[in-house]
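Usage

Read records sequentially. Each one opens with the input sequence:
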Amino acid sequence: MKLKPKITIADHFAVIQDPRIDRTKRHKLIDIMTIAVCAVICGADGWVAVETYGCAKYEWLKTFLELPNGIPSHDTFARVFAQINPQQFQECFLSWMKSIQKITDGEVVALDGKTLRGSYDTSSDQSAIIMVSAWATTNKLVLGQVKVDEKSNEITAIPEVKQRLKLGILSVALSQMLNSLVILFAVIGELKIHCIGYWMLP
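and closes with the structure output:
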């Protein structure tokens, strides 16, 4: 018998380890994950917005989530996400993305590095966080992101993006982070891709 494909958020995020103590759990972890992901997709940009989304969509969410104690508070969302393993969450998210998208033949995948606003912490001397994103231009979908190591730069993260997403021979548009021909050709050699050029982003 053919197995049903895993396409729901619960299918892919159920493996995330719950860092909470059993006696303090009032909400199921998968409920928290699902509400947060759906809220962000719909434009939520903070935990208060995620809670507001959950309350507004409660009846719909109840059709596929248990919600034993209703919608979690914004403090609960913040506390839980601060404790879960970010690497594990990213792997689950990438797994889900791969299950619901298919790269079109000849599609251009745009690679771009961006510094997260407000991520620099002067009090703890923490450098700003830089993320490299892969954007499928035809499907208009972010295929995945990789955080750049603090002691490195965007260039070293690109091979990791390719490996995680299992990208084959693709046309890749390279952004302003590749600001020299030396770096450009080095990246092309590492990825074994066909480069169609690069552009300057605002």
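Summary fields computed downstream for this record:
- Helices lie at 9-13, 29-41, 47-56, 58-61, 74-83, 86-100, 154-165, 181-191.
- The radius of gyration is 19 Å.
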